[in-house]
Amino acid sequence: MLRAMLRDLRAHLGRVAMTLAAIVLGVAFVVATWVVSDSAAATVSSGSSRTDLTALVRAKPTGPTDAEISADVLGRLAQLPGVTRAEGVRAGYAALVGDSGKIGTTSWAKTAGTDWDDSQRFALIDGRGPQRAGEVALEQQAAAEAGLSVGDSARVLLGGDRSDTATVVGVFSYRGAGWSFDPAVAYDADTATRLLRDPDAAPTAEPGFAQVELSGADEQAIVAAAEKELGAGYWLDSGSELREQRAKDAAADGDVIRKALLAFAAVALMAGVFVIANTFTMLVTQRTRQFALLRAVGARRRQVRRAVLTEAVVLGLVGSTVGVAFGVGLGLLAMRLLPVVGDVAYVVSPWAVLLGYAVGVVVTMVAAYGSARRAARVSPMAALRTDAAVPRRSLVLRSVLGLLAVAAGAAMVAVTSPEDLTEPKRMLAMAGAVLAWVGVLLTAPILVSAVLGPLTRLLRSPRPVTRIALRNAVRDPRRTAATSSALMIGLSLVCAFATVGQTLSADITEQVRSTVPENAVVLRAAAFGYLDDTARAAATGVPGVTALAAPRSGGVEVISARGASYDTDFTSLDPAAVGSAIRPRILAGGSDLRRGVLLAERVATELGVKAGDQVRLRFPVIGEAGQAAPVEVPATVAGVHEGSDLLRGQLIDDALVPAGVYRQGDSMYAVGADAAALRGALEKAFASRPDVLVQDREELLDDLLEPYQLVLGLVYVLLGAAVVIAVFGVVNTLALSVLERTRELGVFRALGASRALVRRTVRRESVVISLYGGVLGIGVGVLLGGVMQYVILANPVFGMSVPWLTAVVALAGMGLVGVLAALWPARRAARADILAAIATE
């Protein structure tokens, strides 16, 4: 019996090939994900491993900036028993200036410098290390971003508005230790001491070290001696602890990548389940008489069921083998294409291979189980029939479960509210959305009858092709639902993420355009930097500036009159600039900071205060000796504002902030009578400041939206795999539909239908199924996206922005998918032998 089943598989290689394609794509996605995540973790871990580090010493900061280790402490550490090397590492602000005259618009530009030594901190890639003044070595990624190589002249921006020009003599990769900074440049020791020192330090002050690295054979003894020597003012980490922590961090990063990509792999596998299930339904349908004959000669139901499942195991093993090989190659190719600078580690773990086989075999068996049960229920009397027919299952239980899931999911979302959206409630709402999504999949067959059925009665076209196509799609709602569900899975997630992205983009756009005047010129610090007092003074003195908003943020505790408190952020501003250079969105009260503070909506709600109430502001203060006692300032609530990414927390008058409160700002907003002339004047004023970018409002908006667009683009590419798999499902469904209508097609041809008409009918059915799956996917995806943006942004569920362009493109794409998927089934239906088809009963 097993030999007969395997022989039948060879006789239907076309169906088998489509099943294998679905299995291969799903398994390849899973294996590639595992390979990429393991390789990424190994790349990070191997690129930073050091064997020369026994202990690392850092001074605990007493203020907002990092503390330094004195030369005296370095000398005492060098004298400890067992220490063979004590290396002081200098660090300071240093950033490469690119061709644009700025240090780069990317947020990840490196802005640190250090001193060169012969430790394992540096892995030389090209050239040599710097040996004298006028020479510099560059970190490889920073050099690549600046377009510099050995022999070029590099301009380095230093702290205190200083800069240095030096010849590039080497390119290196940096091996940090635990928390360590990631430098862009390295000077020789004497030059680093001179250039990297704090520009605000007294000229007579001796420069210190950012950290001290100790080397020696006996790690435990050195660490114990250093702890005794240093006392409580320092952090001390052993080399083994740092290496272990680095490996854990790399593994955690790889795990994050793995989980994110496996989510997309799961989507592809879900689409594959429907395709495989349809294929096995087709294979079982084609062999209805064979199963009946087997039953007639004594085969038990269990034997038939086992035979079909054995076929599934064989196909799963073959598909998994090809999928694992394809996935390994795809993962290694992805690592080569990723923007990783330096040596890349390629790891193919046994877990990746085993998981690929487990997924391929289990998914195939689960998808084939329903067909196996239907094959086992074929009556021996079916051997007397010559057409294909299998027992139909009731849809009542499935439909009831689906409707209950949709109702329960909707209720889980409804019980939450945006005013009090805590973390557990966010998880509840998201779980409800997923449950409702599953419910739609379960109710898909009755949706087919409910949606497509009435269309067959409404359409009264003199050309009956469309009506015939609709009736054929409704004929087996379970199979049509499986096909449309495969399309719906991928398309709904694409539309869901598109909805979230569109809503987020619309929210950011509204924030920026409502907060920043259209004629404002924006000054921004590049590369996660800050605008210092010098930059603010320079902007204030530019001719044509009529108002300048220079927001600076810090931490504060707001205390209500009843004693309730809330730890939050504040943003201090010049009251004269509010309403002219920057416009907070006021929800209650006024915007005059001279009359009091503007509380953020969430803080006002939590504390139960409103405009006109009294509050106390408790500021943490940094004194000369470090952290000092906090200072409380009484204030009146002048108003409540909505808040935005540009104006975070509570808005406070600059004059209200006590001395010693740490605050930083990364943007300024200037307005004047002539915006074009003002921008030119500001660009001229900051031409010598590579760390300051001059933009208009739309350029600022583009920079803020760019990261989200890149992420969404990657999501679309990954989810596209599910849509590709779903295309095979459309082909399978049409082929099975043609198979079941052999006699009908023969009569259709005998009555005068041309081959072109038959092909057009099958193509129209394909388009109907594809468009139905597209409409269902878009509708479900937009609703799912509405819940997702509600969970992320706390906006109302139906307050989302619908991505109309994505929806239109997706629907057009589904129509094209329908046409392409019908090419082979339509050709086969048109070439059917008329007499043989009519003879089928």
From TrEMBL:
GO molecular function: transmembrane transporter activity
Superkingdom field: Bacteria
Membrane topology of this protein: Multi-pass membrane protein
Domain ABC3 transporter permease C-terminal as annotated: residue spans: 263-380, 717-833
Keywords: Cell membrane, Membrane, Transmembrane, Transmembrane helix
InterPro entries: ABC3_permease_C (IPR003838), MacB_PCD (IPR025857), Macrolide_Exporter_MacB (IPR050250)
Subcellular localization(s) per the UniProt record: Cell membrane
Residue span(s) of domain MacB-like periplasmic core: 17-226, 480-671
Any Gene Ontology CC annotation: plasma membrane
UniProt KW Membrane keyword: yes
Membrane spanning stretches: 12-36, 261-285, 306-332, 344-369, 395-415, 435-459, 480-500, 710-739, 769-792, 804-824
Statement: the UniProt record of this protein carries the keyword Transmembrane: yes
Pfam families in the record: FtsX, MacB_PCD
Family listed: Belongs to the ABC-4 integral membrane protein family.
The protein, known as: ABC transporter
Taxon lineage: Bacteria, Bacillati, Actinomycetota, Actinomycetes, Micromonosporales
